[in-house]
Write a structure and sequence with these properties.
The complex is a heterodimer of chains A (about 290) and B (about 425). Chain A is of the alpha/beta class and about 290 residues long. Chain A has eight helices and ten strands. In chain B, the strands form nine sheets. In chain B, strands 19-20-23-22-21 form a five-stranded antiparallel β-sheet, covered by helices on one side. Classes of the chains: A alpha/beta (about 290), B alpha+beta (about 425). Strand 8 (about 215-220) of chain A pairs parallel with strand 1 of chain B.
Chain lengths: ~290, ~425
């Protein structure tokens, strides 16, 4: 097992599992899990003792009346739910630790989906994995995530094309990328919309890449193309960069809105639990 | 101004270091960036790259340069023409003579060192050494119109030729040159040694004349006479310059004469008996008129020529050269000045020169009267035939020399001004750091 999925990480996944279980319990409305958006049916799975942190709404009060002890109900997602994790494995994800953060996030999402009874697969521009159907096969998912081939760019449409076919159940797709390439992003969202899939775009950007570096000048090398440009970091140039970054973020958000997808902006250093919460509780774009 | 000062060197060395550090600081930092998507627009919108200088660097270098300059001790250059000093150094065996506990040569070298130290770098100094007669050597120097006398201490406000060194008694020829009021001029040579031949210049022509018991001879085109306005102390002689174009058109005569009354009060004898001898032949008796010099009222200057002290007193035309016991004692040769001279010995007192000379004159007269109305000695009664002088131009010495045109550096300090400027620059630097533009 690689160090990226260490014991601490697994322990945090256990916490996330309970969060997803609550989401699968069906809160409806704005905060409802996307796994239940399209015809999903929540099925009771089991009881377990109450633990601090569990929501009061998950407590089975009838069982309490009988047993005089607090237990909470656990649910599982319908067996025909599918979660496709599409990762951007291009070189642009390497600086600032974005690649590692994307893997950790995808693994966390996959664990939660498996724990909720959904099938999970992963894909990138260079290929895709098979569907993983049981949480006991989470190790297979991790292996598949780590073996996802990279590419020259974030070819999200190709990743969708390479994804394995699924049945008639609901399908959710989470795209994890920095979304520097706008056209493939729009094409991928359009394809998801045509297929009736639910799309969640996770734009993973480091704060450092959204502000100019320190110093009077910089020689910047593109991580993907190797192109180099010299930039004098004058006050005017810094201001211009800030405007460009702001426009970039707004434009990607507009693409998501245009295609009815959700856009969640995360940073590599964000807390994983909070990141997962934001992904599953993300608002659908208006 | 010199940069051979530690602080000045440090300041100068810091300037290239500051520039180097600035270049390092401004060198583009290589960075691997996820995408140049946002930067392309920034680079396209950037103004064409110009070679700009960081104001902070200007402040740093400016402060360093100003401090360095201040430490170097600069000065304003001001328009003062360089002085030209011709130094004639006594290089003869007589410089071994001891005087005041040291040798004449050692005293001369010390005086020369003091003279050099007092000059500015732009001043022109030419040195000549002469083992023979200093005054004749001076006459041979190219600056013939610059004539000065010997002095133990040399003042730079005196003309450009100074003679350093003082010969031992009895070896030099004393030279005096005066102006004639009657269209003629006399030059006299006096020597306390045996008569001998010396070289003199007359109108650019060198002639050999005889010295000894009293010689009058043409000497040079330009002479100096003492002036009472410029006298600057007992050990310094300030001169006026009188340019006399002298035309020599005949043979000189070496005359022997006796002047019986000279340098005496006006109420005394108005006439003087005179014996004139030519070429060492039989003397010719004559009369000198108008010896109306009044001691005290007419005295205006003293001059020391080698080992002979001279004083000038007001006089009238007609007086002549007083010779006493084989030496020139007094000479009056123009319309203004009576020159009284006497040998200088160890007890000679510059302040009492006139009294000594007058006493000598009295003794001479007394001896003459006691001896039958005639004093031993030679004098010139009338200008020798063949000397024709034209009117000279008498003007105060202004210290300017024809060839001295170079400017020399002055001494006005700029250090405080530069240091103040450096403080201002440092203040601007601090302000720029605290409140960057």
């Amino acid at each position: 097992m690689p160090a990226v999925f260490d014991e601490e990480f697994r322990r945090r996944l256990e916490v996330l599992k309970r969060l997803v279980a609550r989401a699968l319990a069906g809160r409806g409305g704005a905060g409802r899990s996307p796994l239940h958006e399209r015809g999903g049916r929540v099925e009771f799975a089991d009881h377990r003792p109450y633990a601090p942190g569990d929501e009061l709404t998950s407590i089975d009060w009838h069982a309490y009346a009988r047993l005089e002890s607090l237990v909470v109900k656990e649910f599982e997602a319908p067996r025909d739910s599918h979660l496709l994790l599409v990762l951007d494995r291009s070189p642009s994800m390497e600086p600032f630790g974005k690649g590692r953060a994307a893997l950790r996030l995808a693994a966390a999402l996959g664990w939660l989906a498996l724990a909720a009874g959904a099938r999970v697969a992963c894909a990138s521009g260079g290929g895709a994995s098979r569907w993983v159907a049981a949480v006991e096969r989470f190790g297979d998912l991790l292996d598949a995530l780590e073996r996802l081939p990279g590419g020259a760019g974030a070819d999200l449409p190709a990743a969708l094309e390479s994804a394995p076919p699924h049945g008639s159940g609901p399908r959710t797709c989470v795209l994890v990328s920095d979304l520097y390439e706008g056209a493939p992003f729009a094409q991928a969202l359009a394809a998801l919309k045509r297929r009736g899939a639910d799309g969640i775009a996770v734009q993973l950007l480091a704060p450092e890449e959204l502000r100019p570096p320190d110093g009077a000048a910089a020689r910047l090398t593109d991580a993907e193309s190797g192109e180099t440009i010299d930039v004098a970091l004058t006050p005017a140039a810094r201001e211009r960069f800030r405007r460009e970054a702001d426009a970039f973020l707004k434009e990607r958000a507009a693409i998501a809105v245009r295609h009815g997808a959700r856009l969640v902006r995360l940073a590599p250093a964000d807390d994983l639990v909070q990141a997962v919460e934001r992904v599953f509780l993300a608002e659908r774009a208006a | 101004m010199s940069f051979a000062v530690p602080l000045a060197l440090l300041g100068l060395a810091s300037v290239p270091i500051l520039v180097l550090l600035d270049r390092v600081r401004r060198r583009p930092r290589p960075l691997l960036w996820p995408s140049l998507l946002l930067w392309r627009a920034v680079a396209a919108a950037a103004e064409p790259r110009r070679r700009t200088v960081d104001p902070l660097l200007l402040y740093e270098c400016g402060a360093a340069a100003l401090l360095s300059l201040a430490a170097a001790g600069p000065g304003f250059a001001h328009a003062r023409e360089a002085r030209s000093v011709v130094v004639l150094i006594d290089d003869g065996p007589r410089t071994a003579a001891r005087r005041d506990g040291t040798t004449v040569g050692a005293a001369s070298r010390a005086e020369l060192a003091r003279l050099r130290a007092s000059l500015d770098p732009g001043d022109v100094v030419r040195e000549f050494r002469e083992a023979g007669d200093l005054r004749q050597a001076a006459a041979r120097l190219p600056d013939a119109d610059l004539r000065v006398v010997v002095s133990d201490r040399v003042g730079l406000d005196s003309p450009g030729l100074v003679v350093v060194g003082r010969a031992a008694t009895g070896t030099n020829v004393g030279i005096d040159a005066v102006e004639s009021g009657g269209g003629r001029v006399w030059f006299s040579l006096a020597c306390d040694g045996p008569p001998r031949e010396v070289s003199v210049r007359v109108g650019g022509e060198t002639r050999r004349v005889r010295t000894g018991e009293g010689v009058d001879a043409p000497f040079a085109e330009s002479i100096e006479v003492l002036d009472d306005d410029n006298y600057d102390g007992d050990d310094r002689v300030a001169l006026r310059r009188v340019d006399l174009p002298v035309r020599y058109d005949g043979e000189s005569r070496l005359v022997r004469a006796a002047l019986f009354r000279a340098g005496l009060p006006a109420h005394e004898a108005r006439e003087a008996s005179l014996v004139v001898a030519t070429g060492g032949g039989e003397p010719v008796e004559g009369t000198v008129r108008g010896a109306e010099c009044v001691p005290g009222a007419g005295i205006f200057e003293a001059l020391v020529l080698e080992d002979c002290a001279w004083r000038g007193v007001r006089a009238r035309p007609g007086d002549g050269l007083l010779m006493h016991r084989g030496r020139a004692l007094a000479a009056w040769l123009d319309a203004r000045t009576l020159w009284l001279g006497m040998p200088v010995d160890a007890e000679w007192d510059a302040h009492g020169t006139l009294a000594v000379m007058l006493e000598a004159a009295k003794r001479a007269r007394a001896e003459a009267e006691a001896g039958g109305g005639s004093l031993a000695g030679d004098a010139i009664a009338t200008p020798p035939p063949g000397f024709v002088a034209t009117a000279g131009v008498d003007r105060p010495w202004d210290g300017r020399l024809p060839e001295a045109r170079r400017r020399v550096e002055g001494r006005l300090p700029l250090r405080a001004l530069l240091a103040g400027a450096a403080v201002v620059v440092l203040a601007l630097y601090a302000r720029a750091i605290v409140r960057p533009a």
